[in-house]
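Something for you to look into today, if you have time. I want to see for myself how the chain folds. Leave the record below and I will have a look.
***
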Amino acid sequence: MSAFRVGIAGPVGSGKTALLDALCKQMRSYVEIAVVTNDIYTQEDAQFLIKSQALPTQRIIGVETGGCPHTAIREDASINLVAIQELEEKFPNLNLIFLESGGDNLAATFSPELVDLTIYVIDVAAGDKIPRKGGPGITKSDLLVINKIDLADQVNADLQVMERDSKKMRGDKPFIFTNLKNQQGLREVIEFIKLHLAPNLNQ
């Protein structure tokens, strides 16, 4: 059976790789995990995860997308699908594969053929207007993560405004405030993933 795939997208600097790093370290003891990262011309995010020892090196593949990174997760997902196949052949017991998109704008979305669940990460430092700007990442992702809440005062961002606008833009879809520096909100993100992952686990 194929591993459950979770896509993590969001603008540059929002904290996608930090979230991915934390998720791997927290979940690797009870879930068989691998990662595919997408960068335009480098494998910087993959190298970060390897250096931080989020997972063994063989479980992390960095894909260089060239051009527009959203193409590799949407219109032409073939290079990501090849990477997924390679990981599944190497590790037949995989339960979970995280796919991280290259830093992109609010319009980036994953192809349904590529992932089963999407997490979109924005950060408070970009201002409290971000949720109401909309875009598929904000409105259609399965989970919206609003990161760096510790910076709210410094950038005059109102978390209540962000909460109100997120509810308005997302309806019943969940969102979680996080500060990944001290793992605030991380447990809730993990529980959300586990809820959807459960049918794929043979525990």
User: Anything to note?
Assistant: The chain has eight helices and seven strands. The beta strands are 4-9, 33-39, 60-64, 96-100, 117-123, 143-147, 175-177.
